[in-house]
């Protein structure tokens, strides 16, 4: 499942870096992040370990293209995930904040592109 998430994210990011604006609404729909957080509830040690690695890698990818507020939230999430015992409820709260922050930035970016004609 995790490789599929990264493949989809990378393909959307590549499309986004081009001139195609059709991928932006899909790319910036972060509802799927909550589903990904739920994978951290697993009691299987190996799945939980891979979930942490995947989620931290995903956060690194997101951090490259985000603004300061989102970067702070990402650091908070990384701190939560780095703990031996992860509070999924706290991670969900932070992921919700991150989704809102990223969506606001993407909405602003879309509006600026529309105004500038790019």
Descriptive overview:
This protein is mostly helical and 118 residues long. The chain contains 6 helices and no strands. 13% of the residues are buried. Residues 19-26 and 107-116 have low confidence and may be disordered.
Please supply descriptive tags for the structure shown above.
118 residues, mainly alpha, 77% helix, globular
Summarize it.
The chain is mainly α. It has helices at residues 2-17, 24-27, 32-38, 45-64, 68-82, 88-116.
SSE map:
Layout: H1 2-17, H2 24-27, H3 32-38, H4 45-64, H5 68-82, H6 88-116
Helix pairs in contact: 3-6, 4-5, 5-6
- End-to-end CA span: 35 Å
How much strand content do the residues show? under 5%
How is the biggest beta sheet arranged? none
> What is the averaged pLDDT score?
75
Strand tally: 0
Helical fraction equals over 70%
Order of helices and strands: HHHHHH
Identify the overall geometry: globular
Which structural category do the helix and sheet elements fall into? mainly alpha
């Amino acid at each position: 499942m995790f490789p599929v998430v990264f493949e989809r994210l990378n393909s959307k990011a590549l499309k986004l870096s081009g001139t195609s604006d059709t991928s932006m609404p899909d790319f910036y729909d972060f509802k799927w992040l909550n589903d990904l957080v739920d994978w951290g509830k697993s009691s299987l040690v190996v799945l939980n370990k891979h979930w942490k690695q995947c989620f931290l890698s995903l956060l690194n990818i997101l951090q490259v293209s985000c603004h300061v507020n989102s970067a702070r939230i990402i650091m908070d999430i990384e701190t939560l995930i780095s703990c031996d015992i992860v509070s999924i409820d706290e991670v969900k709260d932070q992921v919700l904040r991150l989704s809102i922050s990223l969506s606001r930035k993407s909405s602003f970016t879309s509006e600026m592109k529309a105004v500038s004609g790019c």
